[in-house]
Design brief:
The protein is mainly alpha-helical. The protein has 6 domains: 53 residues, 434 Repressor (Amino-terminal Domain) (Orthogonal Bundle), CATH 1.10.260; 73 residues, no CATH class; 100 residues; 53 residues, no CATH class; 92 residues, no CATH class; 213 residues, hpI Integrase, Chain A (Orthogonal Bundle). Helix content is 61%, strand content 2%. The protein contains 33 helices and 3 strands.
Length: 698
């Protein structure tokens, strides 16, 4: 029997009315009438679960029979009935939502789509957006059989709980978006979290390939995201209690395409970890001497006995330097750094971060495996790896393995890292360095500035979307305040007490407020991602009611001790938000025992959560808000390019201002990145000039 037959049997046997059953199950009064009368209507899992409990029959496993309607069929019905305008609007939204013709029509999909996109992100006026939405829903109500594909609304139990937990977590967006389809698959096949294996993922890949309309490459990428999702779910405190296990990928590791096991590079990597890494962080010289030993040797040399006249002369120079302001201070810093370079140390502005060390370790592995796989040569030291003959063959093999693409900067980045290692660590000769530089030029793409894929994303920022980006903080905060008011009223209705506004702000809302503040900082002067994430409370001051974030020069790329700080001066509205955030919201984000956390954005729950750490997932939340409100998905670093893009669209004369705003030392850097961003910037300016100079009219 189908679930409809089960419901009808219950009504016949008990004499209960449809309305009474609907209300008793906690549904709206017409729920049962709609289920029994509307062809193809598929109730959600929660609806069937509530009805099963109400009538004592299992409706979740009852048979369902319906023939779904596709978007193609719907548009054809509209055309045949003479509603060509409505059909055109349906097709327009289909294109924007990427709904292909043989995809099943689902009313919930339409509602969810319009909730996620405002008028600006659709390229429509607010009135047109409403018209499009009403027309599509009216067409569905008139012609569709109300069928919809199975989704997360149809699952329950541990799988539904897992989806809710993942949705509210800070797991990377690409992984969270794959959680719904994967959990539906697990639910339909009765696979529990602890039963997930590599074979499960292989079966899921085959299932998607068979039932979907996407390419093999996209299916592989989808399953790869699921592998990463499971790894996060196993370690993240917000999901680890659910029992999901991190299963291995069903596909071979593409990094092993040369057939070389990493263990064969043990001697090379041991040197990288024990010798190069301390050198890269400034803890040791290239020959292994510690920084403390360097200081001791420097003190010993500077303490060398001199005659009385030379001693008085040095004291006089030191005294004048002490009172000589920044000039004397900079001179002392330069002298010390010159000595450090002489002893084989990296100075403060040239040291590598932990993330950079990890990334470049991967570069070393790639080159070493490429050489081993192509010529059966295992290099055992970094000096061998940067040997020009070895490096040339390793680069060729790596290029061929990556399809010989000339549009990728990956190989160039690898070779530039080898050049840094050759110069600073291995100490190779100048002729060899020149050879490595020529190798880099050979593989360079010939492209300067912003990558093509990022240019394409910037071109998606139309005037309407730029305005939505500028208004994002106000838009999101308006929504947050509305949600706070709703929660307060709901609490008063339930308990008779109207709680304070802060009392109804949970971690989710607090994190969104932190993300709004981070967006304001990025939009004001676009500091680099690490400078926002690692911003400290003691970097912030309030001057005449305005918040000023001063990022110390050594923390800024391209600056060193003695250079001016990178200063971000917030406007009045953003400054008020900063004050309220520090006083009221930030305490809500602090974990128990983390009261001494020095960061503006304190660390949140995660697999590697530690006290006194920053909120590493903050900027993922920022770009998620931007995507929801504006309709363009970008990476956090693209904010810097976006600021330049917005101001240069206003006028190409703003090029020097963009240079100062973004802190570029040279105007040439700004020109390379932004002047060639898009020829439309120049063309639009010329068209405006022509129009203002034209004295005749058509």
């Amino acid at each position: 029997m189908s679930f409809r037959d089960e419901i009808r049997a219950h009504l016949t046997e008990t004499g209960e009315s449809k309305r009474a059953l609907s209300l008793r199950a906690g549904l709206n009064a017409k729920a049962i009438a709609d289920i029994l009368s509307i062809e193809g209507l598929q109730p959600r899992h929660s609806t069937l679960a509530a009805l099963s409990e109400a009538i004592g029959r299992d409706l979740l496993t009852a048979e369902t029979h319906s023939k779904p309607m596709t978007w193609y069929e719907l548009t054809e019905k509209l055309r045949m009935s003479g509603e060509k305008t409505r059909a055109s609007r349906v097709q327009s939204i289909m294109a924007k939502a990427n709904w292909y013709g043989n995809k099943r029509v689902c009313r919930h999909d339409v509602i969810d789509f319009f909730e996620r996109h405002n008028a600006a992100s659709l390229g429509l006026s607010p009135t047109s957006r409403s018209t499009y939405k009403c027309d599509i829903l009216a067409a569905i109500d008139r012609y569709n059989r109300r069928d919809r594909p199975r989704g997360v609304a149809d699952i329950g139990g541990i799988w539904a709980n897992a989806y809710a937990a993942v949705k509210d977590s800070d797991i990377p967006t690409d992984c969270r978006l794959k959680a719904g389809p994967f959990f539906v698959y697990l639910f339909d096949h009765g696979i529990l979290p602890e039963q997930i294996t590599s074979e499960t993922l292989a079966d899921y890949y085959a299932y998607r390939l068979e039932t979907g309309v996407v390419t093999d490459a996209k299916c592989r990428k989808h399953v790869g995201n699921v592998v990463t999702l499971l790894r996060h779910m196993q370690s993240d405190p917000s999901t680890s209690h659910l029992g999901f296990v991190a299963a291995a990928s069903p596909f071979s590791d593409r990094r092993d395409k040369f057939g070389v096991d990493t263990i064969e590079l043990q001697e090379l990597l041991s040197e990288y970890d024990s010798r190069l890494a301390p050198w890269a962080t400034g803890e040791a010289s290239r020959d292994g001497s510690t920084y403390e030993a360097f200081l001791a040797e420097l003190d010993r040399k500077e303490a060398k006995p001199v005659c009385e006249k030379k001693a008085r002369f040095r004291n006089s120079v030191a005294a004048k330097s002490k009172h000589g302001g920044n000039a004397g201070k900079n001179e002392r810093i330069e002298r010390r750094e010159s000595k450090m370079r002489e002893f084989g140390f990296l100075t403060e502005g040239t040291r590598w971060s932990k993330e950079t060390i990890a990334t470049r370790r991967g570069y070393v592995i790639s080159l070493a495996k490429a050489l081993a796989g192509s010529h059966d040569i295992i290099v055992t030291s970094l000096r061998e790896l940067v040997d020009f003959e070895y490096l040339t063959e390793a680069a060729r093999a790596l290029s061929e393995a990556n399809g010989g693409r000339k549009d990728s900067d990956y190989l160039v980045s690898v070779l530039k890292t080898m050049k840094k290692i050759a110069i600073g660590y291995a100490g190779v000769s100048d002729p060899e360095i020149d050879d490595i530089k020529s190798l880099i030029r050979f593989y360079e793409t010939g492209r300067r500035g912003i990558a093509p894929k990022n240019k394409a994303k910037l071109r998606n920022f139309t005037e309407a979307r730029i305005q939505s980006t500028i208004d994002l903080s106000g838009t999101v905060m308006t929504g947050i305040n509305a949600e706070i008011d709703r929660r307060r009223k709901a609490n008063r209705k339930k308990t008779g007490i109207l709680p304070d506004r802060l009392d109804v702000i949970d971690l989710g809302l607090a994190r969104d407020i932190a993300a709004v503040l981070a967006h304001d900082i990025l939009l004001t002067r676009a500091p680099r991602s690490s400078n926002v994430i690692e911003a400290r409370l003691d970097w912030i001051a309030f001057q005449d009611g305005k918040a000023v974030l001063s990022i110390p020069a050594p923390k800024v790329k391209g600056r060193k001790k003695g250079d001016p700080d990178y200063v971000v001066r917030l406007g009045e509205r953003a400054s008020r938000l900063m004050r309220n955030y520090i006083d009221k919201i930030r305490p809500l984000l602090l974990h128990s025992g983390d009261d001494e956390n020095p960061y503006l954005f304190p660390g949140q729950k995660g697999g590697q959560f530690k006290l006194n750490t920053p909120y590493r997932g903050l900027l993922r939340r920022v770009v998620r808000l931007l995507h929801q409100q504006v309709g363009v998905r970008i990476n956090p670093h693209l904010y810097r390019h976006l600021v330049g893009w917005i101001w240069l669209k206003e006028s190409m004369d703003n090029l020097p201002r963009v240079q100062r705003l973004l802190g570029h030392k040279s105007l040439q850097t700004t020109v390379e990145y932004y002047a060639e961003l898009d020829e439309t910037l120049v063309m639009d300016g010329w068209q405006t000039h022509l129009e203002t100079k034209t004295k005749t009219a058509a």
